[in-house]
Specification:
single chain; alpha+beta; 17 helices; about 25% helix; globular; disordered N terminus; signal; ABC transporter substrate-binding protein; SBP_5; SBP_5_dom
Length: about 550
């Protein structure tokens, strides 16, 4: 998931803007302490890039809200294992044809029953190129996807994927174009939730006040740049396991402001403690912090396709070798990050320690040699764009200083006020400097670190802001998808990863650690590796 705490496709999903901070919103929720308040908890998020349509939400800010409003077929637990959510069972004999039985009792917040058709209609909408949904490529494994995506300038001949079939109200049969063992894991991503019939009458209006099937329902409309308020849905099958009576998502434009609110008791949950809070957060929030390995990877990206200055691989490698990752992790982030040595997070099967090799190791002499060999940048000038609402100023400026010192470049760190701003400019090919980006997994599979960020399809519908295309990479991705076992798939995906590590369309800089805090209104809580709060784990004081 690209990240407004992630990247485009944490980032998603994300793409990890990991952090945005405060203009506040939501009003007084009584978050000042134990036994006080009305049972509503407040959560810091940044302004979502789009309205709250699940298939058009591919960043962590909107994704956090979708997670509270909707329930999909599977989800991640606190150990990052894929478990059934609304699915009662998911069965297959060949990893190609999947039969999914639904649990009974689920309704949308308007009372409509959730059926197999609710999922089929939602997925067909998301997969149809006419609707231009950001998560469109995630449906590409389903048979009939190509019929809904004939290409630019062409109109789909149908609005239904042939691989989707309802066998009564409670059974969904999905046929893929080829075996894909990670399909149940993929279903845990929020793009695969169901939609009620009212959505299709007015998708735009729905996005401002979505009607989901999850533990919380909207209370009023999306108050842009202020708040998204929800209240507990009492008819939710798992309602008895949900303690909060509502969630107010407070939209901040500055992480530091949010942290001050958290310490003062005016905010209940902040998933990303800003750099300014790292030296003192355990003292500021005694017994109320979360520190755990995270799925996100932070990058410096290059618009290879759109700016010829970045098209030489030796240039990109030179910049990578001139970055002191250990200093960034230890000094800037005070140990709250670790140096990246792969495109894949260490918490995901398939990660290989040291996979990036020399390219991700500081070597100033070699970096200078490669930079000279590449022909360098015009005027020896480099600009690195970043979103100012995510706590990235310090580390991007540190990278800029290192590149100035180690390569003799004139480097400018260019702030964009919000993550959605730089995402929109990258989407429109308007911004052509280097850029800060990150990726947080949509689902726990190595494939999710490759296809959504670096595939050819991800240029139009994903987080491939680089415009990177490599035929060998595409071939290996396809082979990995069709592998008969997870173990064989991982081996092939690792070969695709090696192609990326040679080309370096993005430079891996650091792996995230999740450092979160909560107020004394919350007794305990857990967060899955995809940055989503597990609401049945949130216990109030």
């Amino acid at each position: 998931m690209r990240g407004a705490k992630s990247a485009k496709w944490v980032a998603i999903a994300a793409v990890v803007a990991l952090g945005a901070t405060a203009c506040g919103g939501g009003g007084d929720n009584g978050s000042s302490g134990s036994g006080k308040g009305n049972g509503v908890v407040s959560v810091e998020i940044g302004e979502p890039q789009n309205s709250l349509v699940p298939t058009n939400t591919y960043e962590t800010e909107g994704g956090q809200v979708i997670n509270a409003l909707f329930t999909g077929l599977t989800e991640l637990d606190a150990n990052n294992k894929v478990v059934n959510a609304m699915a009662q069972s998911i069965e297959t004999k060949d990893n190609k044809v999947w039969t999914i039985k639904l649990k009974p009792g689920y309704t949308f917040h308007n009372g409509e029953k959730v059926t197999a058709q609710s999922f089929i209609d939602a997925w067909n909408y998301g997969a149809n190129q006419t609707n231009a949904q950001q998560t469109n490529p995630l449906f590409s494994h389903i048979q009939g996807y190509s019929d809904l995506n004939p290409g630019e300038g062409k109109k789909p001949s149908t609005d239904k994927m042939s691989g989707l079939k309802a066998v009564g109200d409670d059974t969904l049969q999905v046929t893929l174009t080829a075996p894909f063992a990670a399909f149940p894991a993929q279903l845990s991503f929020t793009a695969f939730v169901p939609l009620p019939q009212v959505f299709f009458k007015d998708p735009k209006g729905f996005g401002e006040a979505p009607i989901g099937n999850g533990p919380f329902k909207m209370q009023g409309k999306f108050q842009h740049n202020e708040a998204i308020n929800t209240t507990k849905y009492d008819k939710y099958p798992g309602a008895s396991n949900i303690q909060p009576k509502g969630v107010d998502f407070k939209i901040y434009s500055n992480l530091d402001t949010a942290y001050k609110d958290l310490v003062a008791g005016n905010l209940d949950i902040q998933l990303v403690v800003p750099n300014s809070g790292l030296p003192t957060y355990k003292k500021d929030l005694p017994g109320r912090t979360i520190d755990q390995p995270d799925s996100a990877v932070g990058y410096i990206g290059f618009p290879i396709k759109y700016n010829k200055a970045f098209q030489n691989a030796d240039l990109r490698k030179a910049i990578s070798m001139a970055i002191d990752r250990k200093t960034i992790a230890d000094k800037v982030f005070l140990g709250a990050r670790t140096p990246a040595d792969d495109y894949v997070s260490p918490i995901v099967d398939g990660y290989r320690k040291g996979a990036c090799g020399d390219a991700c190791t500081l070597n100033v002499a070699k970096a200078k040699e490669l930079y000279k060999k590449s022909g360098g940048l015009p005027g020896n000038k480099l600009e690195i764009g970043y979103n100012a609402d995510g706590g990235h100023k310090e580390w991007v400026e540190a990278v800029a200083n290192q590149l100035q010192q180690n390569l003799g470049l004139q480097v400018t760190a260019k702030p964009f006020e919000q993550f959605q701003t730089i995402l929109n400019d990258l989407d429109a090919k308007k911004y052509q400097g280097a850029f800060r980006m990150a990726w947080s997994m949509d689902y726990p599979d190595m494939e999710d670190y490759l296809r959504p960020v670096f595939s050819k399809d991800a240029i139009a519908n994903g987080s491939n802001y680089s415009g990177y295309v490599n035929d060998q990479f595409e071939k290996l991705l396809a082979q990995g998808d069709k592998a008969p076992t997870h173990e064989e798939a991982v081996k092939t995906y690792q070969q695709a990863d090696d192609v990326l590590l040679k080309d370096l369309p993005y430079i891996p800089v650091y792996f995230y650690t999740l450092n979160s805090g909560y107020s004394d209104k919350v007794k305990s809580m857990k967060v899955a590796g995809n940055h989503l709060i597990l609401w049945d784990s949130v216990k109030l004081s």
